[in-house]
């Protein structure tokens, strides 16, 4: 079943839109990685999907219904967004921060219920962050904080989670950890994330979308997308693509 | 350092009660304890004054929290942003012109104060926005500009109407004319302001993460901002109408509450309300006792405490930034 259908999406201003006529579908439960060179429209695409930007032309449909027919609050229950750089707010505990994810569920003149707290705790557990549940978020390391940012989005219980470069400023250990956790989360929800590291994206994502100048160069399984030809088209870089015998995923070696 | 938030609330409530009892004994006229409860001075002068100062403290404290929340800037305060001065112009216009109408049960002074307060805050807010962000520098500068303009208009009103003494004294900020009527006038504003700030705390919390995050959490940012600006202006205007221009309460109190209890508005709003009440009542008690029988207007006391404090946070903020 398609959870997300995008048709003829155009976004940006004037004659040179950042997103140019994109059409694609995403199936429920997929882990889609969006890759492409700087300025290819990866972040813009996520921002349109999250509702932060309004498309100039085209339609976005969630579970078959047009996005325009949802209220802001209903949308927040379906889509969660983790921006690339989130500023940790000094004085907020991890639990308080993750509880903010429950905002769309808390009714007017009410506060977070015990159930909301339980869901927040569950999300923290999913991200293996229980050990610092009471810690001040501003005292966490980058990798720890990124997990909290994702836990906050997960506490929103969205059908789709959008993550903008969730691993780009982390060291290798946290990159792998975050990707493994995302892969686990994917079992219950759809994940769309942008990446710079093609090897990582190809290793962990189920599908990849390669963008350039706001257009799709390739979209499909990682070994269909990560090819010498596509890499050349998108990045003008010569690369050799091999299938890793153990992971069965395409991996890149850059050629001189 | 983890402080139990419920205990803090009880502690502050206890402090408030204790302070108001102490304050009842203090004044230019000494009344011995056995006559205190039968004294006219207590019931007609001191008690209304104590209650009114606490109410104004609550309203200014919450207004500070609200403005800091929606502008995402810890230096926002009704006085610094020129909201108080704007409200002052409105109130002076109503007083100077001798306006005496009543709309929706509100008399002319608070109504005009409110209108001018909203206009001022909107001007400051628009002026301070650079590319959708409100920076501290532009916010303070815009506040200074609007305050200066309002001060000029106030001076003009004083000169034209010839009401120098009454308007000037009221401007300095004072609770010396406190009456039960003032308390009744303020009550609806205080309740409305508190209820809105408290029950919109989840939106204010979401806004801490930034406008975009709040938006993806389902918060209608523009609507919340408008409601909150109206609430802060209403409370400031009502406070200014009864007690003149009193600054820095909304700056000092939320700053300390945030420092010790964190930025969560669920605690920030009620604790700042109590803290504002304590500070205002304490400052007024000091103002009317240290140089007794001469009274120092509360606005002067607060400016003496508040201005250095403002500079201190400003410095600290920049040191942290660099």
Automatic annotation (TrEMBL), chain A:
Gene Ontology molecular function, alphabetical: ATP binding; ATP hydrolysis activity
Keywords, sorted A to Z: ATP-binding, Nucleotide-binding, Translocase, Transport
InterPro entries on file: AAA+_ATPase (IPR003593), ABC_transporter-like_ATP-bd (IPR003439), ABC_transporter-like_CS (IPR017871), P-loop_NTPase (IPR027417)
Identification of the protein by name: ABC transporter domain-containing protein
A Pfam short name: ABC_tran
Domain ABC transporter: 4-238
UniProt-listed SMART domains: AAA
Organism, scientific name: candidate division WOR-1 bacterium RIFOXYB2_FULL_36_35
Gene3D superfamilies registered for this protein in UniProt: P-loop containing nucleotide triphosphate hydrolases (3.40.50.300)
TrEMBL record, chain B:
Assigned keywords, A-Z: Cell membrane, Membrane, Transmembrane, Transmembrane helix, Transport
Family annotation (CDD domains): TM_ABC_iron-siderophores_like
Tagged with keyword Transmembrane: yes
Localization per record: Cell membrane
Transmembrane regions: 7-30, 50-67, 79-103, 109-127, 139-161, 167-200, 226-253, 296-314
Bilayer topology: Multi-pass membrane protein
GO BP field: siderophore-iron import into cell
Record bears the keyword Transmembrane helix: yes
GO cellular component, as recorded: plasma membrane
Source organism, top-level taxon: Bacteria
Molecular function, one GO term: transmembrane transporter activity
Family designation: Belongs to the binding-protein-dependent transport system permease family. FecCD subfamily.
PANTHER family: ABC TRANSPORTER PERMEASE PROTEIN MJ0876-RELATED, FERRIC ENTEROBACTIN TRANSPORT SYSTEM PERMEASE PROTEIN
Name used for this protein in its record: Iron ABC transporter
